[in-house]
Amino acid sequence: MLTTYDTPDQRNLLDRTGQGIIGAPLDRPDGPLKVAGQAPYAAEYDLVGCAEGVLVGAAISKGSIAAIHRDEVLAMPGVLLVLSDKAMLRRPAQGGAAQAPAQDVRQIDYHGQPVALVVAETFEQATAAAKALRIDYDDQSGSGRFDPDALDFAPGEEPTVLGDIDEAMSKAAHRVDETYRTEGHASAAMEPHAAIAQWDGDDLTLWGSLQMVAPNVKELADSLRIPDARVRIVAPYVGGGFGSKLGISHEGVAAALAALELQRPVRVTLSRQQVFETVNRRSETRQRVRLGADAGGRLLALGHEAWISNLPAEDFAEPVTQATQFLYGGDNRYLAVLKGEITRLTAGSVRAPGEAVGMQVLESVMDELAHKIGIDPIELRKRNLPARLPGQDLPYSSRKLFEAMDEGGAAFGWSKRKPKPCMTRDGEWWVGMGMASAARVNMMQPASAQVRLEADGRVIVETDQTDIGTGSYAILGQIAGEMLGCPMDRVEVRLGDSRFPAGAGSGGSWAASSTGSAVFRACESIRIELAGRLRIDSEALELSGGIARGAGKEAPVTRLLAGAPLERIGRIKPGKTADNYAQASYGAFFCEAGVNAFTGEVRVRRMLGAFGFGRVLNAKTARSQCLGGMVWGIGGALSEELQFDPRDGRLMNHDLAEYHIPVNRDVPPIEVLLLEERDAAASPIQAKGAGELGICGTGGAIANAIFNACGVRPRHFPITPDKLL
Ligand code: MOS
Questions:
Q1: Which of 26, 248, 417, 537 has the least CB density, counted as fewest CB within 10 Å?
Q2: 248 CA to centre of ligand 1 in angstroms
Q3: Residue 124: which of 227, 59, 51 has the closest Cα?
Q4: Would you say residue 182 lies in a domain?
Q5: What is the pLDDT at residue 102?
Q6: CA of 396 to the centre of ligand 1 (A)
Q7: Domain for residue 345, yes or no?
Q8: Could you give the count of Cα atoms lying within 13 Å of 166 in the half-sphere of its Cβ?
Q9: Are residues 557 and 607 part of one domain?
């Protein structure tokens, strides 16, 4: 269902081209290819003479390598190479670092860290040799730090301090001061990490499973210490990423190093266990939230402090308070993220870094406050939406939070919710309802894309933008089709190759609005050229079904092209508006949950999310993003939890049998309402980020439904049955 809140903005071309393509719930063109096995993933290219590499992980948590008994496995059948003397194998350069980190080649920072690559003629031979590889360690695991509660914490960034929170808390008529915990998460993308590398002289081609092609080229080049121009990355189809493929990782660097050494192509695929053990985790968090309100339920004090962890040399700190900065008012604020150094695998971006766990907790504590005051949770939130960004006095660009709560609540039947817990029983089950706000910052990235109008009128879009299952192929084609009046069966989108202009990449919910705007700009430029050839003002140009019209003139587009293609590159970068407005996507979650009175089992019975993220580019792919996010929310609320051995920091549940993502039986009917808006400050196509919003608060709505059902408020996610009995 799609509700239009903002009237179409006739100043924006996408609202006056009138093709009915933009926003339409069109199928993804990559869908049939994927279903038929015709969309090759990173490991699925057949290269002549390709050797197979298997990574070996450290069997200790901290220390160094004393000796690697290479010769023993080099004698095994089919084994070609044991690579272990390259530091870049241990920790590839990430985030466009100028250089791969200088590192002692023998140093080990966490259990499972890749320390060697064994290459053989077949995968089975390489696997057997990797298992047999004997390594002597200088084991200093005893000096590791494995308990996230016992670390020395230091601020990641300057805390946000406004007014005096302690005084405001002491004067508040109603107050909540609670500490919650969330456990670590895995990205758990469907496609395991894999790469194939092939050198042609000094030129490297890498087929990889990656989210951000242009930065990944730079990272790979930096890791290998070769010029960027020597590296080509190909990633047209990516089976999910969720942050785990934002940066180049071990398999890509290892494949490139081995292929250079052997002078033949090398493929490195990670097992599911290796993905869990070596790819970014989301940090566990401890979060203290302080809310102090006056008698009318208006916040006077807002405190949110988070304690997170990462490896000593890593900068990333889960930005837990990101949405707390802008979502609610309160003149007295204290927001801080504190980082402790732990001996565990690297913490990094996992879907909606910050909000996924920060909103889950903030929205639970808001529910605690509403319950204490005795007002409806929606009403409490409405009383606390600030008119301007607290502390910075900036306007909000667009914010459909009221509308999401009202529309969503009406569609869900929120008015039937019982105000107190334990008022609805269905056989063995206590049943309750909960809600939460959704909020996620809106970000934009520099992006470029080429659009070519072929002499026969077909449209080709090319950018290195990836499609990680999100719908990039569909929406980029729709923008071009709408702008150039070209039916979709004559539009082709080519993605994920570093030979194409650099898109924004897939991350931070910025792909659609950023790379989409680059396609939009390229099409604007083509329209201006076509109008010139028709000798009319471009404002008057109408393009439809291959015909150009305007100011009483008309010509087939192919005649205007006169046998030659017309191509333009569109470029976009974040401008001043990013600094002049508080920009975010908003929504509301509603959940009905049952709690088994005897076993503590929780069953989410139904959920609804209502979201506003600017222009909806494709109602089907947008809805699917929201659904996927909400399914993640179920996992974060009820089952997902990385478990580390407290003795050595080793990840214990390193596969999908032990790390419990929601399965079909866990996912109830979910309804999505899209509240279409226009955000002219966010991007030229007036769209904001959609991808991650569906997980930003979901777990809070589920926890609040659990409390409303049975009166128990566990403050430790995931809410497993033991916490309810
Ligand atoms: Mo996202 S966690 O920026 O893929």
A1: 537
A2: 14
A3: 51
A4: no
A5: 58
A6: 24
A7: no
A8: 0
A9: no
Same domain? 545 vs 589: no
pTM: 0.97
Catalytic residue among 52, 219, 640, 692: 692
Cβ contacts of residue 586 below 8 Å, gap of 6+? 399, 400, 401, 404, 437, 438, 439, 611, 612, 613, 693
Ligand 1 centroid to 199 CA: how many Å? 30
To test the pocket of ligand 1, the residue of 193, 210, 246, 470 to mutate (highest count of ligand atoms within 8 Å of its CB) is 246
Domain count, the chain: 3
User: Regarding beta strands 491-494 and 459-462, do their DSSP bridges make them parallel or antiparallel, or are they unpaired?
Assistant: parallel
Task: Looking at the structure, tell me whether residues 266 and 415 fall in a common domain.
Answer: no
Q: How far is the CA of 679 from the centre of ligand 1 (A)?
A: 22
Q: Are residues 432 and 451 in the same domain?
A: no
| Phi, psi (deg, nearest 5) at residue 153 | -100, 145
Residues lining ligand 1, Cβ inside 6 A = 211, 241-243, 246, 349-351, 353, 507-508
Q: Which of 260, 278, 296 is the last residue of a domain?
A: 278
Of 692, 693, 695, the one to substitute when testing ligand 1's pocket (max ligand atoms within 8 A of C-beta) is: 692
Q: Respond yes or no: is residue 44 known to be catalytic.
A: no
Residues paired with 687 in a beta bridge: 614
Relative to the CA of 187, which ligand 1 atom is closest?
2
Summarize pLDDT for 279-310 with one digit per residue, the tens.
999 999 999 999 999 999 999 999 999 999 99
The complex scores an ipTM of 0.97
Domain range for 679: 352-443+579-723
Among 94, 193, 242, say which to mutate for ligand 1: greatest number of ligand atoms within 8 Å of CB. Answer: 242
With contact defined as beta carbons under 8 Å apart, do 219 and 94 qualify? yes
pLDDT tens readout for residues 598-618: 999 999 999 999 999 999 999
Same domain? For 205 and 251 the reply is yes
